[in-house]
Amino acid sequence: MEILMAILIGILFMTATYLMLSKSLLRIIIGTGLLSHGAHLLLLTMGSLKRGAAPLLGEHAEAYVDPLPQALILTAIVISFGVTAFFLVLAYRAYQELGTDNMDRLRGKEGHE
Amino acid sequence: MKTNDVILQTVTKFTLFVIILFSIHLFFAGHYYPGGGFIGGLMTSGAIVLLLLAFDIKTVKAILPIDYIKVIAIGLLFSIGTGAGALILDMPFLTHAFTYVDLPLLGKTSLHTAVLFDTGVFLVVIGVTMTIIQTIGESE
Amino acid sequence: MNNLIILPILIPLITGVILIFFSKKILAQRWISAISSILTIIAAVLLVNHVYKNGIQTMDVSNWEAPYGITLVSDMLSALLVLTTSVIALAALFYSFKSIGIEREKFYYYPVVNFLLVGVNGAFTTGDIFNLFVFFEVMLMSSYVLMVLGGTKIQLRESIKYILVNVISSALFVIAVAYLYSVVGTLNMAHISVRISEIGNAGIITIIAVLFLIVFGLKGAIFPLYFWLPGSYYAPPAPIMALFGALLTKVGVYSITRTYTLFFYHDAGYTHQLLQILAIMTIIAGVIGAIAYLDIKKIIIYNIIVAVGVILFGVSVLTQESLTGSIFYLIHDMNIKAALFLLVGIIIRITGTSDLDKISGLLHRYPGLGWTFFIAALALAGIPPLSGFAGKLMIVRAGFEVESYVGAGIVLMSSLLVLFSVMKIFIKGFWGAPRAYKGEEDAPVKWLLFGPALLTAFAVLYGVGTEAIYPVISMAAETLANPEIYINAVLKE
Q1: What are the residues whose beta carbons fall under 8 Å from the beta carbon of C400, sequence distance 6 or more?
Q2: pLDDT for position A113
Q3: Inter-chain CB proximity A82 and B128 less than 8 Å
Q4: In whole angstroms, what is the distance from residue C356 CA to residue C360 CA?
Q5: Which of B70, B72, B91 sits opposite C63 (nearest CB)?
């Protein structure tokens, strides 16, 4: 299972890198989304994958899962949700103001408005 | 852009309440089972987004004249207030208290300050989601 | 258990929330944020005093005992940095009152600044590696908003790049924490340190150490990861620039210092050597930038990079003396960078340009501004008896002691070149024939000068009173040099 997850995470990172290297701003944002998905899955996998009952409730199950990675992922998801949303709004505003979503044309020289 | 989707609008009028009730259920279930303030809040804002899709921003604003940034602030106040309440009692920040009471109809019920904290989360999530969607949606 | 620790985090947080309700009443916003930042300073002073008398203070949030819950830990280093942050925040706020503009003030400027302080103070105080990530994100989210607030074209363009860089580094942070968790199975920093000592010098720990260096290096702008900094910090107005330049990179530097003294000191031959090389390269790259540009903002921005290199060189040497020097220099640099950015902001406000070729003779009309800038510039370069001197002296001496002559020599050389780069501003901008500038009539120079003058006075006191401050700083360095102190205080064994 871990190996399968590792491959999946690898594919996610690969796609994310590819998308982030492209010129279109929207693709870059999708890339960052995939990157954080990969990171979250990695966090889950690294906390070891196993079957078990929910921790802290009841004391009679054979095995319990580690609650910590789940809590961490939830936090990380909320944060990346917020950042991605902000990034999207910003990209939209930038597109309206600057009239382009091409990163090449967003380069800009110093002191250039 | 004015749309007039009769089917969507009619369905929305019914499902809206189902979704909101379900989100409230999720919110209260969250203490022991999957659910909680974040998920409940997302689902409630999902309901409002459905409303936005079926009608348009102006109509929805007339129905729900809410400043969502204020909703975020109220939610934060709830959460921080719950946490800071512990400071007054000279306990560490965010320490929560709970008790069991027998209520009529409901029977034995546990009361937690964590619920107040979660109410804050619920409001913050609604506020944030709706602010984002309005910001993008308004400029059309 | 001590609730004093959380006050520097909680006060700005509550203030920020309350200010949202007053978004249209600017006067109320100014008063509330000024009062709250004074309260934060008081709380921070009490905290420093308390830590000085009673040793490291910890607080288990929501009463979950360490290492199971999130613990806030305030050792001397944290407490001092929190105090410095609060003072800088007050100066920047005072500066903002008359310069940031009604539009920004109405658009939640003060709440966001307060949330930024929550993130910074939280990152300095937390004793949990994942909580550090969360406070990083609070800080970064606020910095995104501050950077784009106002919405000029250059701001939009630069903040896209800034956000992209930081999103990637946040993902790397999560990955690094995931690896660390899979190896040690805990998140409490003191507990991590114990577990790593049990494992000892393992290859995987070294890899994680380097990964953390990349993550914090991106935030702290070390070579070669500083590429985003000159462009991004150039865009926002002066008080925001001061907050960013003084606080954000320093949080990265603090995190490197913390992790490299508390966790990753077992394979110092590799990790600290790497850190040392990168620190030296950072100094060189920063100095080249500071000398090359004729733009006052750029010169000061590149000086941030130089300072990051100097501090990290001290950390990489890893002796008690070098750490003391680094902490001395860290606090000095936060303070003086904020002052310089605000002073540069005043110059730009008066002249309407940041191009040195178009400025001259300011000393004639604005002697107060000129001499404050002069003192701040000398302090930045580390001229005795001002504040930069003691720290640099200790770092260099410690460098020579461990026979790292190249590094120590470069640190020494860099002071000269830094002096040259800021004196360039003084000579070209303040001397020469006075000119007429467009912003001259309405610039409230006296009011604006209050913040930077306060910080410069602080720098002079910090330098003159080195002898008096030394025991406090060496107490902070002692905790860094001996991780057991920190571990025992948190885990209470």
Answers
A1: C408
A2: 42
A3: yes
A4: 8
A5: B91
C207 and chain A: CB distance < 8 Å anywhere? no
* pTM attached to this predicted model: 0.93
Domains in chain B: how many in total? Answer: 1
Rounded CA gap, C302 and C314, in Å? 19
Q: Measured between alpha carbons, how far is A72 from C163 in angstroms, rounded to an integer? A: 22
Helices C76-97 and C249-262: crossing angle in degrees, nearest 10, is 180
C28: tokens are: 């109320």
Cα–Cα distance, C336 to C458 (Å, whole number):
9
Q: What is the reported pLDDT for C439? A: 66
Q: Regarding beta strands B107-112 and C57-60, do their DSSP bridges make them parallel or antiparallel, or are they unpaired? A: unpaired
Q: For residue B59, what are the domain limits? A: 6-138
pLDDT at A48: 77
pLDDT per position as a tens digit, C283-331 = 999 999 999 999 999 999 999 999 999 999 999 998 999 999 999 999 9
Q: Taking residues B78-102, report their average pLDDT.
A: 82
Backbone angles phi, psi at A43, to 5 degrees: -60, -45
**CA C13 to each of CA A85, C37, C86: distance values in angstroms, whole numbers, following the listed order:** 22, 11, 13
Which pLDDT belongs to residue C202? 81
Got the DSSP string for A29-91? HHHHHHHHHHHHHHHHHHT-----BPTTS-S--S-B--HHHHHHHHHHHHHHHHHHHHHHHHH
Q: And the tokens for C66?
A: 């360490």
Select from B80, B87, B92 the Cβ nearest to the Cβ of C63: B92
User: Which segment of A16-20, C77-81, C99-103, C421-425 scores lowest on mean pLDDT?
Assistant: C99-103
Q: How far is CA C21 from CA A58, B68, B116, C119, in A?
A: 44, 12, 20, 21
C352: buried, middle or exposed (CB in 10 Å: 19+, 13-18, 0-12)? middle
Give a yes or no: residue B88 inside a domain. Answer: yes
Q: Which of A57, A75, A81 to mutate to test the interface with B (most CBs of B within 10 A)?
A: A81
Instruction: Name chain C's partners: 3 or more CB pairs within 8 A.
Output: A, B
CB atoms within 10 A of CB C198: 7
Q: Which residues of A touch C157 (CB under 8 A)?
A: 94, 98, 106, 108
Coil vs helix vs strand at B50: helix
Q: Which residues of C touch A27 (CB under 8 A)?
A: none
Count of alpha carbons within 13 Å of B62, Cβ hemisphere only? 4
Residue with tokens 């998920």: B39
Specify if B1 maps to a domain: no
Give the start-to-end residue ranges of the domains of chain A: 2-50+66-101
Q: How far does the CA of residue A71 sit from the closest CA of chain C (Å)?
A: 10
Of C60-69, C402-411, C479-488, the poorest mean pLDDT is in C60-69
Query: What are the backbone angles phi and psi of residue A70, rounded to the nearest 5°?
Result: -65, -40
In a domain, B13, yes or no: yes
Q: Which of residues 19-48 of B touch A (CB under 8 A)?
A: 32, 38
Q: How confident is the model at residue A112 (pLDDT cuts 50, 70, 90)?
A: very low
B93, B98, B131: which to substitute to probe chain C, counting the most C Cβ within 10 Å? B93
Instruction: Dig out the tokens for B9 from the structure.
Output: 């609008």
Other Cβ atoms closer than 10 A to C201: 12
What whole-number distance in Å separates Cα of residue C298 and Cα of residue C245?
A: 12
Q: Indicate whether A92 pLDDT > 70.
A: yes
CA distance A92 to C389: 48
Task: List phi, psi (to 5°) of C383.
Answer: -80, 125
Best mutation target, C57, C63, C73, C134, to test chain B (most B CBs within 10 A)? C63
Fill in the DSSP letter of residue A24. B
Q: Tell me if chain C has a CB within 8 Å of the CB of A106.
A: yes
CB-based contact, B135 to chain A, within 8 Å: yes
**Domain boundaries A2-50+66-101, CATH class:** mainly alpha
